[in-house]
Amino acid sequence: MVQAKSWTLVKHFDGFPKDGDFQLKVEELPEPNDGEVLLEAVFLSVDPYMRVVQSKNPEFPVGSHVVSNSGWRSHSVSDGTDLTPIMADWPSDVSLSLALGSIGMPGLTALYGIEEVLGLQQNETLLVNAAAGAVGNVVGQIAKIKGCKVVGSAGSDAKVAYLKELGFDEAFNYKTVPSLEEALKNAAPEGYDCFFENVGGYFSTVALPQMKTFGRIAVCGSISTYNDGTPQTGPYPHMTMIVKQLKMEGFTQNRWQHKNPESLKRMIGWLQEGKLKCREHITEGFENMPAAFMGLLRGDNIGKAVVAV
């Protein structure tokens, strides 16, 4: 029998999450049945990354590393249908934690947003907000690989400095600029062909008028609205979208999951060539899951936020 720890939500968030909204529980897990495996978390995120420590399923030998949507749990039992093996030829000198970040769901979100939704072309100008986050920093780097001008917005001077290290052409701290509108205009006076949207709210309202005619917007997130007790209302973008003939599309990366094996190999290649740099914000200890989650919502992290169990 294995003692499994798990974090559960005991109270729905009222505004920003609080410690009291979470509860740590311990339970005894039964032995795996035939066809099942026992998983042990190694790194945790929104997408838990785990290894198989006991197996009665021949497809997942003991010691296999997999990605699973099993929640915030130290251990869990699975029949294997919800497990995604880490690519077999994962380089030995690349941390497996990156399977939760730049070489995982966030990285694929960046890639498919750029290629499948925006159709970004060489010499175009791209705007990305939350640019130092797990998705945003990869968006900017892929856009530079494709020969584009990249403008990034982030919430601290340290994050802006990181974006400059990554090769962003322009980057600014949206919290300290006198005018968001002027900052966007100064960064790209000619306007933006593409906008990779992670924030929503006021930023979106100010950014849309800066788009070029026939501009494209990929809507990946709306982090500025996630903790609102009362939904934000207006202004509304319809006239701007009509006059500029803009295309806006929401998406999640699993629409193109059939392309994942080839896409992950491309991204590993960029990493090994030095074209893609990966930075993580690692919190140690399963007991610190809620704190890491709340830190993510505050914007404490640069790069992917991961908990090392």
From TrEMBL:
GO terms for molecular function: 15-oxoprostaglandin 13-reductase [NAD(P)+] activity; 2-alkenal reductase [NAD(P)H] activity. One of its GO terms (biological process) is prostaglandin metabolic process. It catalyses: dodecanal + NADP(+) = (2E)-dodecenal + NADPH + H(+); (5S,12S)-dihydroxy-(6E,10E,12E,14Z)-eicosatetraenoate + NADP(+) = 12-oxo-(5S)-hydroxy-(6E,8E,10E,14Z)-eicosatetraenoate + NADPH + H(+); 13,14-dihydro-15-oxo-PGF2alpha + NADP(+) = 15-oxoprostaglandin F2alpha + NADPH + H(+); 13,14-dihydro-15-oxo-prostaglandin E1 + NADP(+) = 15-oxoprostaglandin E1 + NADPH + H(+). The keyword Lipoprotein does not apply. Keywords: Acetylation, Cytoplasm, Fatty acid metabolism, Hydroxylation, Lipid metabolism, NADP, Oxidoreductase, Phosphoprotein, Prostaglandin metabolism. Residues 20-307 form the Enoyl reductase (ER) domain. It is an enzyme of class 1 (oxidoreductase). Its EC number is 1.3.1.48, 1.3.1.74. SMART domains: PKS_ER. It is found in: Cytoplasm. It comes from the Eukaryota. InterPro entries: ADH-like_C, ADH_N_2, ER, GroES-like_sf, MDR_fam, NAD(P)-bd_dom_sf, PTGR1. CDD domains: leukotriene_B4_DH_like. GO terms for cellular component: cytoplasm. Monomer or homodimer. Belongs to the NADP-dependent oxidoreductase L4BD family. This is Prostaglandin reductase 1. It comes from Xiphophorus couchianus. The lineage of its organism: Eukaryota, Metazoa, Chordata, Craniata, Vertebrata.
